[in-house]
Design a protein that fits this description.
Arc Repressor Mutant, subunit A; mainly alpha; globular; 2 strands; two-stranded antiparallel ribbon; single chain; 50% helix
Length: 86
C-alpha cells in the first residue's frame, strides 16, 4: 500500500508550493539544505514516490521561491535547494 500524507493530497498546488518553501527555509535556518529526501520525510511520502516531490520542487523553483544550491551540479540525484534569498 502506497503511503502519502493525506494532508499533502488535500492541499492546493499553492499550499504545496508554500509548504515546500517553508520547509526549505527551515532547513536553511538549521544550516542544512532541502533535498528530495528531506521533503519526502516532511510530507511522509514513500521513497518510490520521489517523482511527485521532484515535480513540486521544480514548481517551487519555477515560482522563484527556492533555488538550487549548486546549479553547476549536473547530478539531479544530489541536488539540494535553498531559499531564493539564501
Amino acid at each position: 500500500m502506497e503511503r502519502t500524507s493525506v494532508e499533502v493530497i488535500e492541499m492546493t498546488k499553492e499550499d504545496r508550493i508554500r509548504a515546500c518553501y517553508q520547509h526549505c527555509c527551515l532547513k536553511y535556518m538549521e544550516k542544512e539544505h532541502m533535498t528530495n529526501q528531506s521533503l519526502r520525510v516532511r510530507f511522509e511520502i514513500e521513497d518510490k514516490n520521489y517523482p511527485m516531490v521532484s515535480k513540486l520542487m521544480k514548481e517551487t523553483c519555477n515560482s522563484g521561491l527556492i533555488k538550487e544550491y549548486q546549479p553547476e551540479n549536473k547530478s539531479k540525484k544530489f541536488t539540494s535547494y535553498i531559499p531564493y534569498w539564501g
